[in-house]
Each structure stands twice: as C-alpha cells, then as structure tokens.
Amino acid sequence: MRAIKFLLIVLISTSVWAATQPAERVMFKPSLDQRLRSNLATKFLANWHYKDTSLDDELSEKIFDRYLDLLDPNYSFFLAKDIETFSPYRLNMDNALQHSDPTPAYEIFNTYVDRVRERVAFAREQLKQPMDFTVDESYIWDRSDVKWADTEADLDEFWRQRVKNDFLRLRLAGKEDEAILETLDDRYENLDRRISELNSDDIFQFFMNAFAQSIEPHTAYMSPRSSENFEISMRLSLEGIGALLGRENEYTSIASVVPGGPADKEGSLKAGDKVTAVGQGRDGKLQDVVGWRVDDVVDLIRGPKHTIVRLEVLHEDTGIDGPTEIIEIVRDEVKLEEQAAKSEIIEVPGENDEIVKIGVIDLPVFYLDFNGRARNLPDYRSSTRDVTRLINEMKAEGIKGLIVDLRNNGGGSLLEATTLTGLFIDEGPVVQVRNSSGRISTEEDVEPGMAWDGPLAVLVNRYSASASEIFAAAIQDYGRGLVIGETTFGKGTVQNLVDLDDYAPSGDSGKMGQLKITMAQFFRVNGGSTQNRGVEPDIRFPSAGDPEDYGERSLENALPWTSIPTSSYEPEGDMGRMAAVADFLYKGRIADNQEFGWLLSDVEEFNRNKDKKEVSLLESERRAELDRDEAKRKARKAAQDNNGPLLEDEDALADLTGPVEATVDENDDADSEEEEDDRPDLLLRESARIVGDMVELGRNESALARQFSLLNKEQGSESLH
After folding, report:
1. What gap in Å lies between CA 181 and CA 193, rounded to an integer?
2. 709 pLDDT higher than 90
C-alpha cells in the first residue's frame, strides 16, 4: 500500500500541474517579504524543533530531494538533464536558508513551469490521435523505480500511455468517447490556467515545506491562506463535508474523515479514497480535479450548509484503475454532539445457552469543552464524563464485558486520554512526555477507583492515533484489558503552532503565516514510545498490506522509536495467558466463518497486488477484471442474503447480536446496497465474542490455566509465556 504522503489540506500543498496554451514566460524570484519569512522560519525550525537540527550538507541534500519530490512526485515532468543542471544546488540549500535567499528554489521552479507546459501540450495533441486498445501494452503509473526520463522521447512514450490510460479509465466508467475527449482536454487545458495563477508565495510555501518535512513529517510551514484553512479545520466549523484532504501523486486523496461530520454520516467516503471530480448540487456538472492543488479542491467542496456537493471517487480498495463512485453529501457543520461517545450492547452466546451482554463504547475523538471546564460549568461536555455515564447505563442493563472502540479515532485532548484511562485503572501514571530540552513530565490519573473493573478490550485499527494510542498502550501496560485489531498509526509526537506574525516587524502583521513544529514526544509508562511502532494488538485481525507501509512508519524522516526509563506504576494483572487462549479460540471460531474467509481472501488478493506499479492498456483485459470483481460482489451479497452474515438462522443472529446501530440513515426507500451496509460490523461482532470468551475464562481460573497449558503443549513453544 502506498502511504498517503501529505495528511492535512493546508500543511503540504504539492505541485500544481501546468499548462498548454502559449503564454508569456514569467520568471519567478523571491521578494523581500519572503526573504524575511525565510529568516524567521529558519530560526524557529533550526532551534525549536524536538529533533536536533543542523543546517549542513546532509540536510541540504534532503531538502533538495524533497523539493523535487513535491514538484514532480511521479517523475513525470523533469528530465535527467534538468536534474543534472540543478545539481549545484544539492549542497547549497542550507546556505540559501542561512542567507535568507531561497533563489535556488525559484530557479528550479521556473524550469518546472517550462517542462509542465511542454508535457501538457503533448498530452492535448495525443487526444487528437487514434487510440488502439487491442494493443497488448502496459502503463507504468508508478515511476518510483523508473526515475527521471533520459530523453524527451522516453517521456513522450510515458505520456502517450498516460493519456491512453486516462481515456480507457473513463471509458470503463461508462462515459462516451466524445465526452471523454472533452473531459480530458478540459483537464489538460485547465493545468495551464492553474499554473498561470501560481505566484511567488506558492513557490515559497513549497520550498519551506521541503525544508520542514526534511526535518520531520509533522512539521510544516503554512502560508497565510493555509493558516486560515487550518484554523477552520481545527474549529470544526467548516461548512463542508467534514474531511481532511491530502495529496497522492496527481490525485487529491481523503486523509481522514472527521467523526460526526457529513461525510462520516453518509458513510461511503473513507481514508485513502481519491477524489477525481466535484459537482455542485444534484445536477451540477462534475468538475474534473485530477492534478489540482489541494486547497483549490477544498474551495470547491466547501460551501453553505444544507447544500449538496457531489464527489466522484476512486475507492482505495478498487485500485487506481477501478470504477469510480458518485457520492452525494449534504454540507453541514460538525457539532460536538455528533462526535460524542455512543453505546450499544451486543449479545453473544455463553456457556449452557446463556446470553452474555457485552457493552460497546464507540469513541470517535477525545473531546473536551475547554471553555466550560475553565468556567467550572456543571454540565460541560467531555469524553470521560460521557463514557462514565454510558458505562453506568450499560451496567444497569447487566453487561458482563466492555469494548472501547477507537477505530479511526485520530486523537484529541491529552487530558481526556489521561482521565479516560483513569476510568479503568485505580490510580497511577498514564503517559510520559519528553520535551525538546529532555525534561520528562508525567500525566497521571489521580482519581481512586474505577468506573469499570471487569473484562475489557480496546478495538483499534491503523487510523487510531495519538491520544488513542496513549489510552490503548496504558490499558495494555497495566494489564487491564486486551488490545484487538491492527497495529495503530504510530504518532507519538506533540506539535505546537508558532504564529510568525507575532515576530514580524511592525506593519507586516498578517503576512508571515505559521509554523507547526514538533516540540515533544509521548512515552508509555513502560518506557517505550508510541512513536513510529504504534501499539501492537494482543489479538490481530486480518489486515491488508504490511504495517510498515502505513502510518508513521511509512513517512519519510519520521522520528524513530526510542525509550526512556519506566515510570513507577503497579500493573493490575498479567493478560498473557488470557490473550493466548482468547486468540486461540478466536482463530478457531473464524476458521470456517464465511465472512472472515472473504476478508482473508481480499487481504491476500490485496497483498498480491499491492506492489503492482503498472496496468494493462488492453480494454478486454481491464473489462474482464471489472466483470470478475462485480461477479464476486454479487455472489457475496447473494450468500449474505441467503445465509445471514454469520449464522444460517437470521433469527438466531438477531438473538446473538442484539441492537446494532445502522451505518446508514433508515428510510422506507432504502435500496439493497444500503441494506447491505446496515449489516452488523463483522470485526466489532467478533470483538464481542472475544470479550465473551474473556468473561467465561475469567469466571473459571482453572479452566483458563488448563486451556493455556494444553495450548502451550500443542505449540511446543515458550513464546506464550
């Protein structure tokens, strides 16, 4: 799986593609204002960052390579001879920053403009040529192994195939040839208009982000325009779809979906999806946005609440040549209530036909009404307060075990991560924080007692990050419960915002922008960091791809895992035996489960294809692949409709699952696809079964010991101890 390179809409705007129409060449150069900004930003980045940073030749090479990667990430525009021409700058980027003179970046960019215009002119000419989709050839869409072309002829061949693939992909999506030609011509022509709108400030942001990202991936420079967008997203008052956008090659990608937002409620849009077009209203023309800069796509998606925006999307799991889907979303604001914790109860079978109730807390984000807390309002909202209330309500319903579902929870308030952990431990440290000077502080739970002291599991996935990882790690280190799911994201760092306007000369306020700088790092109470490695689950669910290919581990220049001394804490217990036996029971249960079989099959297929960097340009082969995928989807749906998702008896299923919240709005006109989405969550359901096993094993210590001993003998390994 290719990692999404840039995660926030405003922090890392990547290259803007260029033009086709003849235009007067503009030679960009830095202004005095940008030299001043360069001076301020360089001082802060070199002296304030958590990571020791030296402006030297090693960093210069990183900045040089990163800048070229920002401009030409897929080696589609520059020629090898251009890179050779730029080579004197490779060891001089540090000098440019030290002397507040980013001229090298502007000179490289001037050549970039020329190359993009040449390529787009060629692409438009290719649309006038006949295309034969019976020729057995392949398009290498990922050029990371090819690098820059040696000759113009080599680059012409790549672009011929690229245009051909663009055409074929739209034809496979059902568009008529005439409409395809119009769409692609508009797409390529639009690149010229967009590059003509670039200004010196855009180039400055590219260069400063190349500098910032060469230090560490969560550090960034934000121009005044980007700063405004960032503040909007942090306030969660953006009247849009509630998603953060990033960049992957020529596509705008979904970095994350904001919990409780319009896109989250609609349910179709997922992290990793790529937006290919945006339309206004139900009938507005879909505007092709392939190759657009991210903040311009944001401007199209943003709009007044209660209005409709349509997105044409390539889903991550369909691949780059898969079919697109049109998703209709009603714009709105994201409200705190919509991100609040929710609960449900799932019933699972126990011993002697007993039904065991397992409570579920779905927590999308660690939230806190800071103003209400500061004013000591009696009813201020917080995730800890809400979870406490929900636990008490479910205890009254007779739950025997509890799941805290942190899938897709990207973090939030550190204070809330600490106090929420305190609901499940008695007292003690929760997380350690080391700042750039090396000083270590500890966040502690100081409230005695627990809101829940019974069997507990934390459900996580690859998008569980930051505060979610602090919570899951503490539960694991204290031996209070099992962590189930995927290896988490691995973001164990703390960022602060520096407003450069505060340091600008009088009269320059509002022109400097902001820096987001990593200032500290989180550590578990056992001394290990959540950084880079994330939290490893005790029981692992099937997961597509290699964990090394996603999350913090996949980001260039990410801070490494490290450790500090263990904090003074008293574990509540040892979950080793429980984890081993529960994992064994889980694997036995899913061995003959049809839906898990499908999931494993999909994972295997993804893993087989994840390293593919080319696609066939034979129309017959591409159509056959689409037909196979559609046939598989229909067969699975038919099997689900006939047999139910887990059991052959649908009434028995209802008895075992209990109330499960719908993932789509209920209405009398729901079509079959919506009904399919309304099925109980496979992984959540199995998590409940695992916690049900924990309940039964916890009741009978001798049975747990006996099963562990048998398991240990069968496997003949000391690894279970």
Report:
1. 19
2. no
Answer yes or no: are the C-beta atoms of 541 and 683 closer than 8 Å.
Answer: yes
pLDDT in tens, 349-400: 988 889 999 999 999 999 888 777 888 888 888 999 999 999 999 999 999 9
Question: In DSSP terms, which residues pair with 364 in a beta bridge?
Answer: none
- Sort residue 532 into left (φ over 0), alpha (ψ -120 to 50) or beta: left
Nearest to 489 by CA among 424, 409, 563: 409
Sheet containing 401-405: order of strands: 342-349, 355-362, 401-405, 456-460, 482-485, 539-540
3 state DSSP class of 14: coil
Burial class (CB within 10 angstroms; exposed 0-12, middle 13-18, buried 19+) of 701: exposed
* DSSP H/E element including 322: none
Residue ranges matching CATH 2.30.42.10 in the chain: 236-330
- Contact of 499 with 450, CB cutoff 8 Å: no
Read off φ and ψ for residue 330, nearest 5 degrees: -90, 120
- What is 236-330's CATH number, 2.30.42.10, 3.40.50.970, 3.80.10.10, 3.20.20.330? 2.30.42.10
Identify the helix (H) or strand (E) that includes residue 667: none
Alpha helices in 256-382 (DSSP H): 262-266, 294-301, 336-339, 370-374
Contact (CB, 8 A) for 706 and 713 = no
Cα separations in angstroms, 136 against 87, 171, 611, 616, 618: 38, 17, 21, 7, 6
Give the pLDDT band of residue 229 (cuts 50, 70, 90): low
Q: Rounded to 5 degrees, what are φ and ψ at 601?
A: -65, -40
C-alpha Rg value of the chain to the nearest Å: 27
State how far the Cα of 306 lies from the Cα of 281, in Å rounded to an integer: 10
Question: Rounded CA gap, 303 and 262, in Å?
Answer: 13
Measured CA to CA in angstroms, residue 470 lies from 369, 526, 553, 573 at distances of: 20, 12, 17, 19
Helix/strand/coil for 403: strand
286 three-state secondary structure: coil
Write the pLDDT tens digit of every residue in 543-564. Answer: 888 878 889 999 999 999 999 9
Summarize pLDDT for 415-438 with one digit per residue, the tens: 999 999 999 999 999 999 999 999
Task: Provide the annotated active-site residues.
Answer: 466, 477, 491
In 3D space, the residue among 439, 406, 394, 349 whose CA is nearest the CA of residue 691 turns out to be: 349
What is the DSSP secondary structure assignment for residue 352, as one 8-state letter? G
Question: Does 478 have pLDDT greater than 80?
Answer: yes
Question: Residue 16's pLDDT band (boundaries 50, 70, 90)?
Answer: very low
What tokens appear for 712 in the block?
């240990």
d(CA 244, CA 256): 5
Between 3.40.50.11030, 3.90.226.10, 3.40.640.10, 3.10.560.10, what CATH number should domain 340-576 receive? 3.90.226.10
Tokens of 62: 């990183």
Q: Which residues contact 248 (CB under 8 A, 6 or more apart)?
A: 2, 4, 5, 6, 274
Token output for 575: 């979950």
Distance CA 355, CA 335 (A): 37
Residues of the chain with CATH 3.90.226.10: 340-576
Helices (H), 399-522: 414-421, 467-477
Q: What are phi and psi of 485, to 5 degrees?
A: 130, -130
- Give the span between the Cα atoms of 457 and 698, in whole angstroms: 14
